[in-house]
Records
---
Amino acid sequence: MMPSLTGLRSDLDRVLLDAAVIQQRVAELATQMAQDFAGKTITVVAILDGGLFFVADLLRQIDLPVRLHTLSASSYHGGTQTSGEVTVPWPAGLTVRGQDVLLLDDILDSGLTLGTVRDRLREQSPASLRIGVLLSKKRQRRQAIAVDYMGFEIKDEFVVGYGMDFQGRFRNLPCIGVLTPPS
Ligand code: IMP
Ligand code: MG
């Protein structure tokens, strides 16, 4: 039998942010972005897979022209610890010179992923470059990142749901929660 959402939810120790709270905050971020980019076309660079749900919900609430590029960056390799190495296959067509770029990811943790992508984008001399994340973990970064838009600041613990996974699971949870530690 396929696990139901109730089934996935039952693996959570607790829900940190329920679906309605996330949607409300995403709407606020969209409003802020629409004001900041008014009169412009936004070149969105979205980091997948984790950012998929955030980006999809967010962009549908921004009533401005958008170009969308996706990247699959990974610094996590299956567990809850970052490997310290970030791999970012760069799509051939991704050039942002002179464009107004909005770099989006699900969560800012060590900063290595966003830092790596941000630096690659900067090399191309965009007209502007802003960064948005749904979550930011309160911790010491391995790379400092100035974030322009942040949904929620959370403490330094491993979360799943709304795009974020543990070993490939839990991305489709509509809420964000903390897993029950293995006994
Ligand atoms: P960073 O490079 O350490 O900042 O990690 C960023 C990436 O690691 C994010 O794009 C997520 O995909 C993943 N990540 C970081 N923290 C978590 C977490 O608590 N749960 C799930 N994925 C996470
Ligand atoms: Mg990610």
---
Amino acid sequence: MDRIIYMDNNATTRVADEVCDVMCPFLREVYANPSSMYAFALEPHRALEHARTQVAAGINAARPDEIVFTSCGTESDNAAIFGALQAQPKKTHVVLSAVEHPAVYNMKDTLARNGYKVTLVPVDATGAICPDALAECITPETALVSCMWANNETGIIMPIAELCAIAHEKGALFHTDAVQAVGKVPVDVQATGVDMLSLSGHKIHAPKGVGALYIRRGTRIRPFFVGGHQEHGRRAGTENVSGIVGLGAACETAVRFLSDEDTRVRALRDRLEKELIERIPRSHINGAQAQRTPNTTNITFECVEGEAILLSLSDAGICVSSGSACSSGSLEPSHVLRAMNIPHELAHSAIRFSLSRYTTEEDVAYVIDTIPPIIARLRAMSPFWETPSS
Ligand code: PLP
């Protein structure tokens, strides 16, 4: 394929050149285990601690030792939720939002099998998690509330400080999955007061296979893995030093690029959705009334299957998603769009475009020109599409 237009950055991102550069020495030259006692292990050990300060700074954590390195966002989410529950054995109720990523959402079944009562807090008419509804869900039995910072499918930003304050007022811990927020909007754990926060390297131009969990000092959580004493006994397993070094560098760069994200990337996203909506009749932005991350748009093109659009775009070199990439493979309409009361057939026709700092004006122009004829061709074959003359 001559040209790839990559608009699936909520699924994963290209590793930034400067991130690759800082990682390489830890693969090729200073490859010692950071827990070893000899001098050769000193540099990897120091690099790990430097990355911890970079990640802590990226989310304004008070102390670097509040950061625990993990293998991915999914591990961070599971470790936070299972770990916090195990540390509070007397409490048996958990509140999750109805629009969580499968890394959290699918825990509801495992939790139920293990004797926990799980309540899903709904979203309001705009698609944002509703603080009043959360207040009603929490009981004295509630150990933990987990609500994502920004949604992976729609980009909708949740009122985290407000949700966290409600959880605390009612005596529950608060965890947030900020995998889609870090690098897109300012993330501040002190200003919001969250107890735990998950993030993932490969969504912010670091490699796959590395993530982090912020645990506020004093928050009691049981380690998820049994094994060695790495990460101050909070996450067993030899650290992925090169990946962690990459994550640290990516967090630092992400903070520097926040204003680019808010201006240049937002302008590209806004142009993309405006022109697509104008050129394609019966197309709608899902979640347009809410505050959204600047890089994401989720658009329904009525009367066409999202998968058919995705495959036609793939032939044209354009990468998008027809739902959460992590849940694709199943043709069930997205639980996120369904939780927003979007009818099945419209949820089935939704496409997610997610841009990044590497997206150019030319990429957006190419997508704007390529999509309308594809939708027209697919609609012409659709039994549900009625042209004005028919
Ligand atoms: N949480 C959210 C909101 C996500 O978008 C994703 C991945 O798409 C994850 C968690 C899982 O992260 P990872 O792929 O690092 O396990």
